[in-house]
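[09:14] KT: can someone run the structure on this one? pasting the chain below
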Amino acid sequence: MKRRLFLAMMFVLAGVATSLADTDAEVNARKNALDVAGAFTNDGFKLRDGHWCGSLKAQDHALIAVNLFAGNQYWFAVGATDPVKKIAVNVYDEMGKLLTTQHYDGGDRAAAGFSPTDSGQYFVSVDLVEGGSSSFCLIYSYK
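[09:31] RB: done, structure tokens below
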């Protein structure tokens, strides 16, 4: 009985582990995001550990909550895969107000730079502006 329970648990855990793995499209999207973020590391920005991957439908957006610290500078870089023609990144405060950022627009790659005056929770929106459903990946750097 214990052996069967153990084997059943192993199959469940193996299924969970494989379902958490990134797809090929997410890996390619992350590569595109890292290509953009590489330019900021040349300016002294450090990449944060972790990344956010997902899928977007046409005219859709994903919202990611991040904690930012006053006095730091941040760049949020996103990459997507075909058939995306244009993707955008925007930053919102905790009240949902769109904040002024520096922008880089490169078709299936985009970035937004921001320096908060107050520490706290902010929201990063990844918007599929033009093209079909696709995978995306968001990473960010700071200094």
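[09:33] KT: thanks! The chain has one domain: 23-142.
[09:34] RB: yep, looked fine to me
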